[in-house]
Design goal:
Helices cover about 15% and strands about 45% of the residues. By secondary structure, the protein is α+β, with helices and mostly antiparallel strands. It has 2 domains: about 160 residues, Nuclear Transport Factor 2, Chain: A, CATH 3.10.450; about 110 residues, Sandwich (Immunoglobulin-like). The strands form 5 sheets. Strands 8, 9, 10, 11, 15 and 17 form a 6-stranded antiparallel sheet that branches. Strands 1, 2, 3, 4 and 5 form a 5-stranded antiparallel sheet that branches. The protein has a 4-stranded antiparallel sheet with strand order 14-13-18-19, with no helix packed on it.
Length: about 300
């Protein structure tokens, strides 16, 4: 099976940012809950169901329908790179959703926005069938409270929810202006998804030169500082990063086993070989603020 055909089982997965509600996705205290009218309750529940359906259909319909149901920078980034994941998979993807319960908890009021919280019991199952290899089934359990923001009366978007028992926002690290340039190539580290049991680095590579650039597989890795020097961790890399066409820009994913800490870790990409090789190294010590703990029953590598 080709490496890029293996990428999707190691991954998780473009909306404009809406005003955000402060606070975690954990169930809200009773004192914070304001009983809402039937319109709010119905609209909030419908928004959650529509989100689940768009997530299920994302392999076939693309990112746009799902992007219309999310708010906030974290979930907008997740939707964007979920679309890259689906696009890069060499095979077919089938999905089924199981929505067991959607219960309106109450409305939320914050200084910058209004919203609501809904109790959800649901799951989405994806079956990845690569061109070369056996099908693999992955289940995303979405049980728990869903926090929504209300951009306008009667309209809600999902701001945060639990994925396999952990708030999705806790596992998404967004980077600002984290890019390196070695003429004619610029590599931008867009974000990191820390969804156990994998870490997914989302990378944008631009080539302003007049020749195609080839990735050096030996230089594309996550390196860990140890007593004996830097240890190389092999991962899976989407084929989009393998060749960056002249004058082109590509989005790609680099996936490695989940880490207990970002300290002493360096993400590396190398384009070309020999003395003309272009090296791009991103030390993660100061980039990753907090590494979320693994869900109960799971361990990191």
């Amino acid at each position: 099976m080709r490496t890029h055909a293996l990428i999707v089982p190691m991954l998780l997965g473009l909306a404009a940012c809406s005003p955000e509600l402060a606070g975690p996705v954990a169930p809200i205290a009773e004192a914070q809950v304001t009983p809402g009218p039937a319109l709010d309750a119905g609209a909030a529940r419908e928004a959650v169901v529509s989100f689940i359906e768009a997530y299920r259909a994302s392999p076939q319909q693309g990112a746009l329908p799902l992007a219309q149901h999310v708010a906030g920078a974290e979930l907008a980034s997740w939707v964007r790179w979920l679309d890259v994941q689906h696009r890069e998979f060499d095979g077919t993807i089938e999905a089924a959703s199981d929505v067991r319960d959607v219960e309106f908890i109450g409305t939320l009021q914050a200084r910058r926005a209004n919203g609501a919280q809904v109790g959800l019991s649901a799951s989405v199952t994806f079956v990845f069938d690569p061109t070369d290899g056996d099908p693999i089934e992955l289940v995303r359990v979405l049980d728990g409270p869903v926090t929504l923001v209300r951009p306008e009366l009667g309209t809600y978007r999902v701001l945060d929810l639990l994925r396999n028992g952990v708030p999705m926002s806790d596992g998404i690290e967004l980077f600002r202006n984290e890019e390196l340039t070695e003429h004619p190539v610029t590599v931008r580290l867009d974000s990191l998804f820390m969804f156990p049991p994998k870490w997914q680095f989302n990378v944008v590579v631009a080539n302003t030169g007049d020749q195609d650039l080839l990735l050096d597989p030996a230089g594309a890795a996550l390196f860990v500082d140890s007593d004996e020097g830097f240890e190389r961790l092999n991962g899976a890399i989407t084929s989009s990063l393998g060749v960056v066409p002249a004058g082109g820009t590509v989005d790609g994913l680099m996936v490695f086993p989940a880490q207990e800490t970002a300290q002493g870790r360096v993400l590396s990409l190398v384009y070309g070989t020999g003395k003309d090789a272009l090296r791009f190294e991103f030390p993660l010590d100061d980039l990753v603020a907090v590494v979320p703990p693994p869900p109960p029953g799971e361990e990191t590598a």
